[in-house]
Design a protein that fits this description.
The protein has 325 residues and is an alpha/beta fold. The protein contains 11 helices and 8 strands. It has an 8-stranded mixed sheet with strand order 7-5-6-4-1-2-3-8, with helices on both faces. Strand 1, helix 1 and strand 2 form a beta-alpha-beta unit. Helix 1 packs parallel to helix 2 and helix 9 runs antiparallel to helix 10. The structure holds uridine-5'-diphosphate (UDP) and magnesium ion. Magnesium ion binds next to loops.
Amino acid sequence: MALLSIVLPAYNEEQNIANTAKVLADLLTENEIEYELVFISDGSRDATFSEIRKASEGNPCVKGAEFSRNFGKEAGIFAGLELAAGDAVIVMDCDLQHPPQVIPQMWKLWQEGAEVVEGIKLSRGRESLAHKLSAGLFYRIMSRLVRMDMSASSDFKLLDRKVVDVLLELPERNTFFRALSFWAGFRTETVHYEVQERQFGESKWSFWSLMKYAVSNATSFSTLPLQLVTVIGLVFLLFSAVLGIQTFVKFLMGTAVEGFTTVILLILIVGGFLMLSLGIIGHYIARIYEEVKGRPKYIISHVTDNMRESVKKNPRSAKGQTGNS
Ligand code: UDP
Ligand code: MG
């Protein structure tokens, strides 16, 4: 029988673990799907990992690992993919904002031959205005850069073992899971879902963490900003040619002095764009620097007892492995 792994990245979600584990276990048992729940505690500072341990003692299908510090949701997803043993893997938030009721539908599509099942948001759940605005801006920029409509996509998806292995083979460290499954291709189906209310705790994204996420994803997935620098350069070259000719003509006609404002403005504008361009290039150099260093995406400090087996069996997951408890 086929095994379904569900990967759940969790950061400070102590209130959610027990409930989520129970809801998923009940649902999957009811639908007679053989499953494992892989919780990845992303360096949580609360009792998230002990909650995972507790859940795992009550139900051997619940497994978990804890990072040595907060590495971010991307790292959590990838750790989960590496540790998952399933023939199909679903990634979802552990706050149940991704409705579990959709899982049997995803599973059915997979059984019918789909290799990727994308969860598409029908609408965003109720959020604060600031969050909505920053998330809106983020998706607008991302869709442009990635050249795919990202506005309705989410990290809620099912991947076939083949696709998981492809993603795990990617050498890069700065990943953008949401777009990578598009990039990988494969036979893709979609399911639509309504984002649910978060029951416990609060969203882990602040305006700045979202902006950082946007910049990091943009630079890891697209070189468009770099090309933008060239375009801006060209526009200014053209502009300066026109201005140059005008100045020269004025000089010939003997009306050269004046236009001090133009000079000041030009210096400011060109200076501004130069700084911006350098900043953009700097971001890419930082990315290259990080990739070249080749550090692991995450470091696991603890795993649940039943997880130790899969860490041993899967040498790849040992890459990010230290600690022993
Ligand atoms: N998360 C994580 N690491 C982080 C931030 C978030 O693993 O650094 C997890 C979090 O526990 C949750 C999921 O990512 O399971 C989505 O986070 P959240 O619900 O805060 O985001 P939102 O639903 O508001 O977009
Ligand atoms: Mg959430």
